[in-house]
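[Automated response] Your request has been received and processed.

Submitted sequence:
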Amino acid sequence: MSSSHLMQDKLLRQTLLAALIIISAPVWSQKALNLDSMQLKGVQDVLGDDYGNIYLYQKKDFSLIKLDSVGNQLAKVMLPFPYKIQSVINPLNIVMFSENAQEIKFLDQNLNDIQKIGLGNNFGFVKCVYAEDLQFAWLIDDSNKTLVQYNFRSNTIINSFPFNVDLQSIRDFLVYKNRIYILLENSFRIYSTRANLLFSADVPDARKLARRNEDIQVFGSNYISQFDGSMLSEIFRNQDAKIVDKNNRGFLALIKDKLYLYTQ
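Generated structure:
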């Protein structure tokens, strides 16, 4: 085969490959949600539940606001300490943890307190909490270097494991099928309950973790990746976003002072 034919064949293969990449790339439909831009200024977190409601957390005054999909305020609560919101996927039981107060708090759909669980009398210094359900929670006790499964209904420790892992830059963690998923500032790691490292991947500007069925999702400031049990792959990105989230309708992205919903 002549060099000109080889060149033509190479160009054809490159064109076909580029076309396949374009065809396989997801095509997103963008919709701006009708929220007041003043409400979106300075928010630390934006969350969406599976009913289309939006939650805005303001770090400056520790307030949490619940809005419907057209921007009407449904509820608001002023919190005495900074709290990390675990999830709003089930809006009937919103789980929050305050490292400052050493307290787990449950809110209902109107952002009223359901239950408060103080941890200071039973543990050293709890760095992070993952509530499995309305009975059990996993705690990382940093002062005692232990991972604890705690039944807060009966105030009993179910399991306790040595967990001497450096967690100074921890952002979030969760437990699923005896695997400990740890999110650090720039790293996603999976450990066994014996603190053996099973998987590690670099992730920039990490924010939080979430579980959807069998998949573990990693949220950065402008992207969402998903771990399927063997590998971590990106499922959404918007370079202009400051905060991203996901519900069953699609992906939420805060861009400047507007909130957008992206669907396929």
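Summary generated for your ticket: Confidence is low (pLDDT under 50) at residues 17-24. Helices lie at 3-24, 37-40.
If you did not submit this request, please reply to this message.
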